[in-house]
Amino acid sequence: MARIWFKIKKYVLIINMESSPLKQKNEALVEQFLDNIWLEYGLSDNTISSYRYDLKKFIEWLDSINLFLKDISEADIKSYLELRSKKEFSAKSTVRFCASLRKFFNYIILSNLRSDDPTKNLIMPKISRDLPDSLTESEVEQLLNEPKDNLALEARDKAMLELLYACGLRISELINLTVDQIDFTQGSLRIIGKGNKERLVPLGRTAERYLKIYIEKYRKELLDKYPKDNIKFLFISAGNKKSLTGKITRQAFWYRIKHYSLRANILKNIYPHSLRHSFATHLVNNNADLRVVQLLLGHSSLSTTQIYIHVAKERLKHIHKTYHLRG
């Protein structure tokens, strides 16, 4: 139902009488492309929204110079990239735009709407790869010890934090967890990751213990505030009484993490992904096989996981510089 409403909304946006005929034509073509990649690759709504945003901005510029998206040249793309450069768009966002445009023209060519690809000679700007922020083992311990397990809200938060760190979950994977994805018999979670790919992740004894406390003692207490009794999501919001799903939002959980980091006197800027990074970094620091870490994180490519090797090297450099006599 959510997807149907999403599609109705986007087609309503297309039929906007304030748009020029050319812009409507361009927008309709983009929507065809987005529907195609959603059906073919099962991309998340966030990814689809990113493609739409990039191409929508490009369409606005094309409308100002009266160009149909399907017929643009390599020179047109370079002119737009120069404009982005003058407006000081970040290299990262420009790389994303180029990737969106390449994907679009791949669809155009496969659909026999054009034979040549104006994006094939695009040179991507180089971007520095930032090392992910992570917490030390002691900082993780401090953070996880803050929520108490004798109050409904804090018992929920404790179970969520323990799962984030024990399983290396993305925040979207955590908040979308349903009760039937837990297997206490096997001590594992069935995770639905990016592109609807499934993976099994071991729970860990500590995370399993606090998850059971939350489910057996406090989940029903939070559920009682909602009119429906068929809510399937595991982690229930305490404040959004009008929610149809009952699940906690990523924004709400971000505030909860900030709350506990302040209580723990942790000065670092902590956010939900910090615990996923910490999970991977601590595994690599303790000599875990990189391919195992890749499987646990749900990375499709090992090259994505290899960033944590650099994190481990940076940590060793820091230790050497801080403690060695000639560091």
Q: Secondary-structure map with pairings?
A:
Blueprint: H1 2-14, H2 21-41, H3 45-64, H4 74-86, H5 91-110, H6 137-145, H7 152-167, H8 171-175, E1 182-183, E2 188-192, E3 198-202, H9 205-223, H10 250-263, H11 272-285, H12 290-297, H13 302-305, H14 307-323
Antiparallel strand pairs: 1-2, 2-3
Helix pairs in contact: 2-3, 3-5, 6-7, 7-9, 7-11, 11-14
Question: Uncertain regions: pLDDT < 50 for 5+ in a row?
Answer: 1-17
CATH topology descriptor of the largest domain: hpI Integrase, Chain A
According to DSSP, the number of beta strands is 3
Question: Strand pairing plus helix content: what structural class?
Answer: mainly alpha
Element pattern in H and E: HHHHHHHHEEEHHHHHH
**How would you describe the shape?**
elongated
Give the class-level CATH name of the largest domain.
Mainly Alpha
In CATH terms, the superfamily of the largest domain is Intergrase catalytic core
The figure for the number of domains is 2
Tell me what the structure shows.
This protein has 327 residues and is mostly helical. It has 2 domains: 2-110, DNA polymerase, domain 1 (Orthogonal Bundle); 137-323, hpI Integrase, Chain A (Orthogonal Bundle), CATH 1.10.443.10. Helices cover 59% and strands 4% of the residues. Strands 1-2-3 form a 3-stranded antiparallel sheet, with no helix packed on it. It is elongated, with a radius of gyration of 23 Å.
